Amino acid sequence: RWIAYASGNEIRRIPSEGGPSERLGTTGQRVIAGLAWTADDRILIGTESALLELPARGGTPRRLTDSTATERFVFPLALPDGKTALVRTSDLAAGGALAAVSLETGAVPP
Asked: Where are the beta strands (DSSP E) in 1-110?
């Protein structure tokens, strides 16, 4: 069992029983706004420019969604179906809402 956390733009994990942390990867983003660990060992990363995923063993983050100039996908929550994440969208012009994001395609249904 592990606990994932952000340190600057790095994603790290530490054993839940204690011990040294391990660097899993870097996002290249200034702001990390939430992490979620999926049942199939991916870490979802909310950032100011995209929703990313990172293998829990480490590697290079992959974009699931692209944010626009005014919209953000933050504070992800992996749903039990293993195929969907719930995120808070933050639209600077219209406020925020909750949205379901496909973890397979990155699609956000209307």
From this structure: 2-7, 10-15, 22-26, 32-37, 42-47, 50-55, 62-66, 71-78, 84-91, 95-102
